[in-house]
Amino acid sequence: MAVTMDELARALEARSWGDLTIRVTGAAEPSQVEPAGPEGGRIALAMSPKYAEALKPGSIAILAEGMEPERYGLKAAIFAPRPRLVMAGLTRAFDPGPDIAPGIHPSAVIDPSARIGEGAAIAPLAVIGADVEIGPRARIGAHVSIGRGSRIGADAVLHPGVRIAHGVTAGDRLIVQPNASIGGDGFSFVTPEESGIEEIRRTLGKRQQIKAQHWTRIHSLGGVELGNDVEIGANSAIDRGTIRATQVGSGTKIDNLVQLGHNVVIGRDCLICGQAGVAGSARLGDRVVLAGKVGVNDNIEIGDDVIAGAAAKIFTRVPAGRVILGNPAVKMETQMEIQRAMRRLPRFAQQLSKLQETVTRLLEKG
Amino acid sequence: MAVTMDELARALEARSWGDLTIRVTGAAEPSQVEPAGPEGGRIALAMSPKYAEALKPGSIAILAEGMEPERYGLKAAIFAPRPRLVMAGLTRAFDPGPDIAPGIHPSAVIDPSARIGEGAAIAPLAVIGADVEIGPRARIGAHVSIGRGSRIGADAVLHPGVRIAHGVTAGDRLIVQPNASIGGDGFSFVTPEESGIEEIRRTLGKRQQIKAQHWTRIHSLGGVELGNDVEIGANSAIDRGTIRATQVGSGTKIDNLVQLGHNVVIGRDCLICGQAGVAGSARLGDRVVLAGKVGVNDNIEIGDDVIAGAAAKIFTRVPAGRVILGNPAVKMETQMEIQRAMRRLPRFAQQLSKLQETVTRLLEKG
Amino acid sequence: MAVTMDELARALEARSWGDLTIRVTGAAEPSQVEPAGPEGGRIALAMSPKYAEALKPGSIAILAEGMEPERYGLKAAIFAPRPRLVMAGLTRAFDPGPDIAPGIHPSAVIDPSARIGEGAAIAPLAVIGADVEIGPRARIGAHVSIGRGSRIGADAVLHPGVRIAHGVTAGDRLIVQPNASIGGDGFSFVTPEESGIEEIRRTLGKRQQIKAQHWTRIHSLGGVELGNDVEIGANSAIDRGTIRATQVGSGTKIDNLVQLGHNVVIGRDCLICGQAGVAGSARLGDRVVLAGKVGVNDNIEIGDDVIAGAAAKIFTRVPAGRVILGNPAVKMETQMEIQRAMRRLPRFAQQLSKLQETVTRLLEKG
What we know:
Chain A is an alpha/beta fold.
């Protein structure tokens, strides 16, 4: 996995400087990088002058445009016009990938009717159900289970312990982190007569008589459909749809411990951060960003390009392009104003009561 | 799995219309349903006039009471007086169930002392511990583990990857979604002397000197007791109790990514939605509803029939029947008033400062 | 697992009273404890006069200092100067531990290059990768997977379904609850040009033109490093670092469904409660307490001994020793004031508008 500085610079489509024959064996923070020897060395990630202070002379580094390799006594350097973008290429180059050996491990339990694509790897103790289809070069980790009739595209990586239920379809290059669950049953129940929840939605909080009723299950006949280039985080859960499939569009990335309820539709190229939750039948457009711990109410629509700040709780539809924050979520600038005012609230209270006294005195005087 | 319209109508106890000999092969949204042919066809779920617009003539459908099958050119129809209740019966009729084949798979590792009920199915690579008891017709999915001495009632369905620790007992018809964990150790620690948390609970936020102390573990000797007809969602976690069992009452349904701490007691027929959390030793009455992302503080009591709206954070006891919202949670109507006032806060601030100026001028004039 | 009252009192370093030869077979709440017979009996946990009311004469109990065993007709008693601390010793004494039998189960799939310490137990169907190192007396549960080159110290307990990816190192006495995932890939993506998120962080909410861009993955080359005496809860997820390791300091305890993002650094002896989340590259000092559902923004620093109350959302750095609460989190006493003022807000609004009328009248009169 070692490449020369020249090869690395070309792979990153980046400008380079110095001795480009030096071999790069990995990447690290500047303080952890020793000078490059005859065998080469690790490349220091020093894309800001602050981090670059720790560079040792004789080492190799990635610098931001405008930084001077001579100043740090470097042997060679690569310049990153957009540091995080260079990080993407660099980390891809050095990632040995997950611990899934090539070939099909004999301990895996694979139904004879399953179709496994060419070059696919199946780790120990995976369970592949009837009529499952796994694309070429896919890598299925230890203890993964895939239910009856599900389809996983080419070049997928399913990390250990991932659960794919029956009736799930995924495009190419799917990545699922450990212990995520795709295709559990939706959380959908009904009472014989109107339930308390239905009542307060209708009356906005008023209740008449409270009835003891049991919950009857609405079963989930729909599956889950994932587009291409979808990634799903560790211990996240995506429920199957009731009648049609729960959907996640191509290019969408989902973090850890995220919940997508039944019938949810997520557009393309969205970013759903850690511990966010989208309740049943909500619909998100394309390129929507939900920061950590955001909640989306059931049955509402979030337009394209909406960005919801950390911990925003979204109770009503949001038009395209809006940036929102708070609980309940409102426009970010409104929320900022509300927060400023809230911090001044105790002072308001004092001012108001003082003013009341003053006016009372004025009235008495008058 | 095909039934006639007549059979389906009877199963749903619903009024029907038209050619009741047509065979129903499944259910779908109106736009996806083709006209029924000689083999029958899928039934369209068209319980509101809005959805019904997409009905194709010659198809079969479920309509709301009062809708006219002739208007849409249907061949046959079933009338749903309470649409969601009909959905329950309909989806149950067509659910093929999870991918767990009958019989005991030879790759499962089952302790000889375990008692497996008649007709129970055990999927590949499940691990069943000593003295475990599994009820008749239960279905245990792939990669499930059940610890020493736990008991699962009749007709249970444990989806793949579910963890049942030792000392867990469950009634009949338990459903556990993929990768849920029941019976992990409680999160309970103590420091040799008063900890910072204990200090601020005592002083309401004031601290004197801060001591460096280590946490000592309080072990969890209690188990978990689940009633009948309990359902637990994907990747949820229910901790075992310290001395007595953590309890979930019959008929209670728990969604994905929910946390129930040690010693928690949940009543009957509750609904605990996605990503809600109930901290250690809290007690919920019967028919309590916690919407998504609700948090319940440790050691407090929530009365029967309480409904907590999405993301409510409950810090103190709540009397029976109350509908609450917000952080900290208060009565729903109070929270609505607070929210209205908050949105107007920036304007208040302006009005107040203007009023101050006016009064100052009045005073000067006076 | 039975001990005498005398042995138990010595193990707890606690004062005792009565017949110390009685055998203790377990512990329970007072109402569930029967009088001790010739075989001994369970010890009642009656550390407050309220609980002690349920004690039956002839039983054995743990009392708080100052309580009188004669009053309850006890046969023997142990006095707990700090009840929760006594609980720690007592529950440890009676905990039979997880259901992991000694020895290496033949169904486990262990790479020949793995080094398993003396006395370690490996349960059925565990998967241990190449070059993995497992310390002496460690107990690895059913369906656990450990990836290439990871190291687990002595006396570790990994409960069923735990995922340890490649490149994870842990000290001694690690405890991981069921289905937790350690070492999933970080959630780190970049767009070719500035993304909407970067734009609004720069402009504080303002957006110009919205561009359709795809997310490119930044791979995670760093691992995860856990100190000694770390505990991690059920279904929690700790991501690996980008270049250096994500770190959790010795003595830190993490509850269920907690998310730690890539590059996060957690100090020593912290307590991270259920459903808390710490976003990428945030740093926590020593002895920090995050209560349930707390969120910590990415890239910020939380000083030593900070205590964040339940559901606090922390957006900016917090100095050492501070007690914080709210969303956004502020000093606890400030938050209490804000909450009091918020509850009075609707009344403020009325008072303000009344005052405006009064002043208007005054002006007209003037």
